[in-house]
Each structure stands twice: as structure tokens, then as C-alpha cells.
């Protein structure tokens, strides 16, 4: 997706000039998400996926309630990782049976809410099985469960590894048969969830992971009850810098079609097969908008100081899992199309040198009062950031 919209040199989001959006938001900084871009991204994924593969949205990427309501009409289900996300998901038209609850360390209260609601609890440990079994008995409702499997392989090219080796996520693949043997008839077993890595821009690596996931699950099928649910994970990445190349969906769709035709459908005819995506669906549809409050020179470096920062956009500051910090794409939203001036360093107003949004970035000359936008801000932005740091007000989020 490309943010090409501008009107008379001013960036537009959802067709609305950024200055007008700032007035609508009431203050800066704020997040703005373009619903049309989300719709188009979901459509492109749908077009690439073969018949029989469903699409689920990972709510942790962006749990804004209005966004979830919009997505509820576009995707087949939601994946949540907390009771708060679960409540938001249940407020949408998505049926509880199409909601999966994953994540380590679920509390007794969260498990009770999940079992009572009828969502699928994706077990992250052997002890979690005992807890949901007891909760189901107390409620008189068999718990819907799936087993999250920690695979015996790793995914090349992932920005963050969520499977392979020792992990807090899932049950080690070699221990799963023992857990399956203890299921009994007092739980409603659905199937398996395997999510091995995230933020991957290599289609060949994703295809390899999907093939190995299918191999793993088919091996487990020999010792499991009938499999009605198979979550193949996701991990589709988006570009964050000029050197990143957008992910090519075509080979992924072709690989999935072969897997479905040759292996999954013949051997697991009752399985609902799901691809789970978060960042890929919403990440490029959002901008973080912040206003220049100062401009200063310090020993040869020009600092542009804005009223936002890492307390809202931790990932853009490089402090959310980046090994080597890279600048997110940025623009002076009120000076689109103007030539770049000398490089500047864009910083927030927190009392820490970590509050860095852009290091020596080439932008048109930004003056006090100008609006600066950080792109690729639709996922892992506000709710993945230390919003209470220095007690600044929370930013507004708007869906346009």
C-alpha cells in the first residue's frame, strides 16, 4: 500500500487533508487509520488464498474497537491474547466459535471468561488443560480447546521467533502426543495452532514453514481425535525501510493451494484451515501524526522536536525488538512534494535519549507548527508503547 494521497502539498488520509483531520482529532499527536486501505489489503489476501483457507485477524496488532467492528465484516475470525481483547472481539458480530484465545499465562479468571463465552482456548501448557477442564466442569460447559504446538523447527527470516527451541509459547511438539492421550471426553477438542515466527518478508521462508507445519500436524493426527481446526499461523511482514521489499503473496497462495489439494483436504477433510494475520492487514493502513514544537541546533545536528514520541510509537523508536535500529518512513505532512533539506533528527519530548523517531532523516524543512507523520503505524503502535511514561495525555485514534 502506498500513501500517495495529497492535496495541494498536504497529505490526505482517507481522502481528508491531514490538517483537517488534526482539527477533527482535537489535538496532536494522534493515530489515523484508513478503512479503505484495510479493506483493500484484506481483499488482496483473500484473492491470494485458495478456496478452503480462512482468514483470521490477530487483535494484538491493533485492538481499536472501531477497527475491529470494520474488520468483523471482512475476516472469518479473531485471535485474542487477553481478556480485554476478548471482550472487544465479543462485542463484534464475529461468533464466539470463530475466536481463538492464545497466549501464555492465562489466569483462572481469563480462562473462565473464555470457556463461558464458548471461544477456543489455545492451550499453551499442560497445566492449562487441567485448569480449563476444571472450569468447564464447574460451569457445566465442555471447554473448546486447541493445542498450540511449539514446533521442532524454526522459521528462517522471521523478525521475531515464536516457535522452535525452548519457548514460553505452546507445548513442545514431542510432548503433544502425551497431552492428547489425556484429553478425555470432557473437553471439546478442535485441533492445533502452530505459529512459528512473525514479520517475515520472504515468501519462500513462509512457504517452507507452512509445509513443515502441515507435516507436523499430519504426524500428530495419527494420535489425536478428529481435527476440526488448523491454525497455520501467519508471520507475513510489511516493509519498514527502503531496503525492505514487499512480500509477494502469489507463491504463498500457490503453495497453500498445493498443500490443501494434495495433503490437508484428503487427510483432514473436516479441518477448518486458518491463516492468522495482524500486522499485514492493518500495519500499512495507519499513520502517527505529531506536531513540531521546537527546532534546535546542537553541535552540528539539527533536532526537530515533536509533541509525540516513543510513549506512543515505541516500535518506531527502535525499542521494540529491533536489533539494528532503522527509521520508519516519515514525511512533513504539510509540505508534501517539497525537496528535502539537510538531514534532521526527529525526537520526542520525553526525558530520555531513547525518544528518537527519526535519525538523520531527509525531510523538507519542518518549522514549528508543521505536522510530521510516521507511516506504517497501524500495528503495534499505541497499545505496544509505554503510554504512561512522563504522564503525557493519551493520543486520539480515529478511523476514516
From TrEMBL:
GO biological process: lysine biosynthetic process via diaminopimelate; polyamine biosynthetic process
InterPro entries: Ala_racemase/Decarboxylase_C (IPR009006), DCO2ase_PEP1 (IPR017530), De-COase2_CS (IPR022657), De-COase2_N (IPR022644), Orn/DAP/Arg_de-COase (IPR000183), Orn_de-COase (IPR002433), PLP-binding_barrel (IPR029066)
Modified residues (N6-(pyridoxal phosphate)lysine): 60
Keywords tagged on the record: Pyridoxal phosphate
Signal peptide limits: none
GO molecular function, one term: diaminopimelate decarboxylase activity
A Pfam family annotated for this UniProt entry: Orn_Arg_deC_N
Residues at the catalytic site: 351
Domain annotation Orn/DAP/Arg decarboxylase 2 N-terminal: ranges: 37-282
Name of this chain's protein: Pyridoxal-dependent decarboxylase, exosortase A system-associated
Source organism of the structure: Herbidospora solisilvae
Amino acid at each position: 500500500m502506498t500513501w500517495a494521497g495529497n492535496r495541494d502539498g498536504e497529505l490526505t488520509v482517507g481522502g481528508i487533508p491531514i490538517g483537517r483531520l488534526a482539527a477533527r482529532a482535537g489535538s496532536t499527536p494522534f493515530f489515523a487509520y484508513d478503512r479503505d486501505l484495510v479493506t483493500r489489503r484484506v481483499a488482496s489476501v483473500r484473492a491470494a488464498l485458495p478456496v478452503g483457507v480462512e482468514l483470521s485477524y490477530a487483535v494484538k496488532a491493533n485492538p481499536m474497537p472501531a477497527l475491529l467492528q470494520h474488520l468483523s465484516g471482512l475476516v472469518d475470525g479473531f485471535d485474542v491474547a487477553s481478556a480485554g481483547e476478548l471482550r472487544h472481539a465479543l462485542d463484534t458480530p464475529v461468533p464466539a466459535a470463530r475466536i481463538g484465545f492464545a497466549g501464555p499465562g492465562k489466569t483462572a479468571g481469563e480462562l473462565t471468561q473464555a470457556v463461558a463465552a464458548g471461544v477456543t482456548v489455545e492451550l499453551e501448557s499442560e497445566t492449562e488443560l487441567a485448569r480449563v477442564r476444571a472450569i468447564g466442569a464447574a460451569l457445566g460447559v465442555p471447554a473448546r480447546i486447541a493445542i498450540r504446538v511449539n514446533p521442532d523447527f524454526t522459521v528462517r527470516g522471521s523478525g521475531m521467533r515464536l516457535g522452535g527451541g525452548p519457548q514460553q509459547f505452546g507445548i513442545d511438539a514431542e510432548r503433544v502426543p502425551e497431552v492428547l492421550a489425556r484429553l478425555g471426553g470432557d473437553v471439546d477438542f478442535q485441533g492445533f495452532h502452530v505459529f512459528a515466527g512473525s514479520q517475515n518478508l520472504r515468501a519462500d521462508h513462509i512457504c517452507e514453514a507452512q509445509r513443515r507445519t502441515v507435516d507436523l500436524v499430519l504426524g500428530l493426527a495419527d494420535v489425536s481425535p478428529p481435527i476440526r481446526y488448523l491454525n497455520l499461523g501467519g508471520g507475513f511482514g510489511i516493509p519498514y525501510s527502503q531496503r525492505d521489499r514487499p512480500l509477494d503473496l502469489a507463491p504463498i497462495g500457490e503453495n497453500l493451494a498445493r498443500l490443501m489439494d494434495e495433503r490437508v483436504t484428503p487427510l483432514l477433510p473436516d479441518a477448518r484451515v486458518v491463516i492468522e494475520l495482524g500486522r499485514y492487514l492493518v500495519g500499512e493502513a495507519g499513520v502517527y501524526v505529531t506536531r513540531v514544537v521546537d527546532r534546535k541546533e546542537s553541535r552540528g545536528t539539527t533536532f526537530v522536536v515533536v509533541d509525540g514520541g516513543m510513549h506512543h510509537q515505541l516500535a518506531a523508536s527502535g525499542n521494540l525488538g529491533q536489533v539494528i535500529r532503522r527509521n520508519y518512513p516519515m514525511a512533513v505532512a504539510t509540505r508534501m512534494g517539497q525537496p528535502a533539506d539537510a538531514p534532521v533528527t526527529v525526537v520526542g519530548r520525553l526525558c530520555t535519549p531513547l525518544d528518537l523517531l527519526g535519525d538523520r532523516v531527509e525531510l523538507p524543512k519542518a518549522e514549528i507548527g508543521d505536522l510530521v507523520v510516521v507511516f506504517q503505524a497501524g500495528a503495534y503502535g499505541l497499545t505496544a508503547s509505554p503510554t504512561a511514561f512522563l504522564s503525557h495525555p493519551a493520543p486520539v485514534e480515529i478511523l476514516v
